[in-house]
Amino acid sequence: MSEAGRDGGGAAVAGSDRPAPESAEPPLRDLAPGPGHVCDRVVVAELLGRQPQGDYEVAVRRNDGSPVVLRNEPLLTGGRPMPTRYWLIDRALNRAIGQLESTGAVDRAEAEVNPVELAAAHARYAAERTSRLPADHRGPAPSGGVGGTRVGVKCLHAHYAYFLAGGDDPVGRWVDERLRDRNRHFDPNEPAQRRRP
Question: Is residue 44 part of a domain?
């Protein structure tokens, strides 16, 4: 795979010799890709606090080009399964959602969203991730739905990442509504916070 495909040079698998999947992958939010694609690896490693362990692309960016959500391939380098297809790496959003979770929001979200819609979101997420497995793959594969969850809600960050990337996720919508109430929702025009507080 080319470096652009590994680093997340743009939508689909830009610069890769691998064609974009014809699966039910959700459309990306229409955000300007912005400058700095060459630096994605450095910025992503800084935001994660380590080097990524597998291939990814930047699925959502701020208008200044800063990565917000990664779309991970289903297998890490070496073949270990990666259940989290969409990974929220924006520091401000991670902090805001962490504050929500600390108030019992995971249980509230699970109680308030339609369980049939939630199960459908898990199924869509799993189907998209599975569609990206190599055709000849015979080893362990990721399982579960959003973030590897089989039933219910485990991580609001994973649901919000999927929602921001265009996924029809009732928990992601629920999180977005709560963040809007606190004026902490995703605003692509707001600059990213790159330094740790």
Answer: yes
Q: What would the pLDDT profile of 79-133 be if each residue is shown by its tens digit?
A: 999 999 999 999 999 999 999 999 999 999 999 999 999 999 999 999 999 999 9
CB 62 within 8 A of CB 190: yes
Residue-level pLDDT at 18? 33
Domain count, the chain: 1
* CB burial string 137-163: b at 16+ within 10 A, e below: eeeeebebbbbbbeebbbbbbbbbbbb
Which residue from 103, 113, 131 is spatially nearest to 169, judged by alpha carbons?
Answer: 113
**pLDDT tier at 191 (50, 70, 90 boundaries)?**
low
Please give the structure tokens belonging to residue 147. 């973030």
The pair phi, psi for residue 74, each rounded to 5°, is -75, -10
Q: Is 40 part of any domain?
A: yes
Determine contact, residues 109/90, Cβ cutoff 8 Å.
no
Does residue 91 belong to any structural domain of this protein? yes
Q: CA 75, CA 66: separation in Å to the nearest integer?
A: 25
| H or E stretch at 99 | helix 91-101
Residue 194 included in any domain? no
Helix (H) or strand (E) segment spanning residue 73:
strand 67-76
Which range of residues forms the domain containing residue 51? 3-181
